[in-house]
Amino acid sequence: MSKFWSPLTASLVPYVPGEQPKDKTYIKLNTNENPYPPSPKAIEAIQKAADADLRLYPDPTCETLVEAAAGYYGLSASQVFVGNGSDEILAFAFAAFFNPEKKLLFPDITYSFYKVYAKLYGLQTELVPVNEQFQIEVASYTADNGGIILPNPNAPTAQLLPLADIRKLLDANTEQAVVIDEAYIDFGGESAVSLIQEYPNLLVIQTLSKSRSLAGLRVGLAFGSEELIDGLNRIKNSFNSYTLDRLALAGAVAALQDEAYFREATDRVIATRERVTHEAQRLGFKATDSKANFIFITHPEIPAKSIFQQLREKGVLVRYFDQPRIDEYLRVSIGTDEEMDAFVAALGDIVAG
Amino acid sequence: MSKFWSPLTASLVPYVPGEQPKDKTYIKLNTNENPYPPSPKAIEAIQKAADADLRLYPDPTCETLVEAAAGYYGLSASQVFVGNGSDEILAFAFAAFFNPEKKLLFPDITYSFYKVYAKLYGLQTELVPVNEQFQIEVASYTADNGGIILPNPNAPTAQLLPLADIRKLLDANTEQAVVIDEAYIDFGGESAVSLIQEYPNLLVIQTLSKSRSLAGLRVGLAFGSEELIDGLNRIKNSFNSYTLDRLALAGAVAALQDEAYFREATDRVIATRERVTHEAQRLGFKATDSKANFIFITHPEIPAKSIFQQLREKGVLVRYFDQPRIDEYLRVSIGTDEEMDAFVAALGDIVAG
Predict the structure, then answer these.
(1) What is the pLDDT of residue A20?
(2) Residue A139 in contact with partner chain B when CB distance is under 8 A
(3) Mean pLDDT across B150-176
(4) Cα dist from B330 to A81, B101, B304, B340, whole Å
């Protein structure tokens, strides 16, 4: 606490990202990174962009990337916004759309940054419980509200809502923004981008961090009606004119254009996920039905916190959330087959005691 | 206007960066970019960092860059913050420190983003007039206030406050944050970083965009007491855990380490600035005493707006601000000697009518 802080600063409870310990080399299955490198074309584009032109500001409108993303989904440029990771776009969306005079609704079990953003922008929130199977039930989003946000697939539960449910949610909530956070959509889900022509209040946010293997480049995308995209631009242009550097722009365009590489890498992650889920089940674990690049597992007898600690000692980092309802679960990112073999072997040792 | 916007979004008046027209190739003297490329070592470091590790998140604490910046000024890491350009750090500082219950003070003629940030964070402001020579008079900052911010050198007036004046300002304002925005300090000024040990309420913000020729990389630095740096981190970690990508981190560290290149490039800009100032004076222009990488000039007879338009037709872009007190001035970034020769020739033609 400092007397030089604003009341806002003093009130915040900042987000804590997954640990990045430097004491030794771990098998890192704790931040949902992609185990495969980005497209070689993205790396090449970045190396080419690392030249004397770095002395110049990037294009503040990010035109090349906006057009590449629009073309990818068959949209117009006015329906696309790009930002410094989907986290920055989420922050802008919380400021741009959610009405502080009413409650913002989101699931009780979800991405833990949402409540941090809500505090940052002084928003009231109502946590809508997921059901006993950790599924989001759209019929529960009935309270009068100033906006709704949910991830699809949800994190850390990994479960997917079908598009029909998103549509139901939108039909019941037409007067305020509904934000669908699709950070993990490419690992088996169907994107709600197809609905934005029908619903002017729908914003869909995606990231190149997971399925495009570019967590280190910080690029997020958002899709919505022109009026929503205008709203995001008003916030962004009151905050920082140039949120994406020249290298991120070049790399992101190239990554979006390399569809074959993207498909192959996501297919591999999905295949490994299915295999590892079965192996964990063979060891007595229960897993939710994951459509993400991570699994969410629990053991009926061994406390999750103990498994987390034992895995850490064995050199495997996973994510444990010490919070109600999910404190017996572990979130495990999907690594390479070799990494997951080591993870399964470690789990086997722990179960065998 | 959209019914899906928050009241905040509707209230904003976003910043408009200098134009980046694509209709033809201009001599671009309108966004204060450095005419010389960044250090070859920075480019090399970026190319090396463009590898498979881009699949991994960057270090959220930006340790290597924080330590490089701390080492540069002989500070500890706890006195340094880094961000996505100094614009992002400014935005965080407005949120972190300025008290919305009192007025924020800044010069009436200054960086036009300040009033945009103030609106974004709901701050009251009082514009403190610069004197007839466009100089900031620290003795005018007497009103009860919730914070003070000023650029040194000031923009677009290019004039420098001596450190003794900054010290006077700090001695008179000890109970709230005082932010000195040193975007242009390396072109002839003396940094207030040397004062941060004495004044726990002083935050100094710098950028790699100007003197390090890295506008395209988006890296800003801030220096202050541990409690101020903590405050910035609380806001940042409530907004986006990873604001600097792996390439920006690598390039920025290498740029900070190449002191010889930095000195040579800034010395060249300064020499060209002095020469061009004299040439403009020979053509009848008046110029402020610039200690920045741009000059601020006016002609006693020819309207600035007309000069701006004629220069544009001749393929030279400069910045014209259509606002009270400075609407007879032009801000002209310092380019290469060849670019400035073309600029001076164009000015000569315009003056000759």
Answers:
(1) 78
(2) no
(3) 98
(4) 33, 36, 6, 15
What is the phi-psi region of residue A230: left when phi exceeds 0, alpha when psi lies from -120 to 50, beta otherwise? alpha
* Size (chain B), residues: 353
Q: Taking CA atoms, what residue in A is nearest to B252?
A: A54
For the domain covering A7-36+260-352, report its CATH number: 3.90.1150.10
Q: What six digits make up the tokens of A230?
A: 């205008």
User: Which of the 8 DSSP states describes residue A148?
Assistant: E
Residue B19, pLDDT > 90, answer: no
Top-tier CATH class for A40-258: alpha beta
Tell me if B57 and A31 make a contact (CB, 8 A cut-off).
yes
* One-letter-per-residue 3-state SS of B269-287: HHHHHHHHHHHHHHCCCEE
What does A75-108 look like in DSSP terms, one character per residue?
--GGGEEEESHHHHHHHHHHHHH--TTSEEEEES
Question: Angle at Cα B231 formed by Cα B227 and Cα B232, nearest 5°?
Answer: 120
3-state secondary structure of B206: strand
pLDDT band at B353; cut points 50, 70, 90 = confident
Spatial separation of the C-alpha atoms in residues A105 and A145, rounded to whole Å: 7
Condensed to tens digits (0 to 9), the pLDDT of residues B191-240 reads 999 999 999 999 999 999 999 999 999 999 999 999 999 999 999 999 99
Asked if residue B177 lies in contact with residue B98, where contact means CB atoms within 8 angstroms, the answer is: yes
- Cα atoms in the Cβ-side hemisphere of radius 13 Å centred on A41: 12
Centre a 10 Å sphere on the Cβ of residue B105 and count the other Cβ atoms it contains. 25
- Residue written as token pair 């992650």: A269
Amino acid at B15: Y
The most distant pair of C-alpha atoms in chain B lies apart, rounded to whole Å, by 60
Which residue's entry shows tokens 């050199």? A315
Nearest alpha carbon to residue A86 among A113, A54, A53: A113
- Domain B7-37+260-352 sits in which CATH superfamily? Aspartate Aminotransferase, domain 1 (3.90.1150.10)
Smallest CA–CA distance from B118 into chain A, residue: A238
List the single best residue of A239, A244, A317 to mutate versus B (max B Cβ within 10 A): A239
Look at residue A45 and tell me whether its pLDDT is greater than 80. Answer: yes
Alpha helices in A195-236 (DSSP H): 226-236
Residues 244-303 of A with CB under 8 A from B: 244-248, 251
Orientation angle between helical segments B85-97 and B226-236, nearest 10 degrees: 100
pTM of the model: 0.97
**A-chain residues within 8 Å CB-CB of B99?**
6-7
- A217/B246 CB distance under 8 A: yes
Q: Report residue A181: phi and psi, to 5°.
A: -95, 100
The answer to whether A37 contacts B60, with C-beta atoms less than 8 Å apart, is no
Measure the CA–CA gap between B297 and A135, rounded to whole angstroms.
65
The larger pLDDT score, comparing residue B76 to residue B18, is at B76
pLDDT tens, residue by residue, B283-300: 999 999 999 999 999 999
Domain boundaries, chain B: 7-37+260-352, 40-258
Residues 6+ apart with CB under 8 A from A31: A17, A18, A20, A215, A319, A333, B57
Whose tokens are 């007397």? That residue is A3
Spatial neighbors of B331 by CB under 8 A, at least 6 apart, are B30, B32, B155, B156, B158, B294, B295, B296, B318, B319, B320, B321
Number of DSSP helices (H) and strands (E) in chain A, helices first = 11, 13
CB contact under 8 A, B238 and A38: no
pLDDT for B18 equals: 76
A7-36+260-352 and A40-258 share one fold: no
Q: In chain A, what percentage of residues exceed pLDDT 70?
A: 100
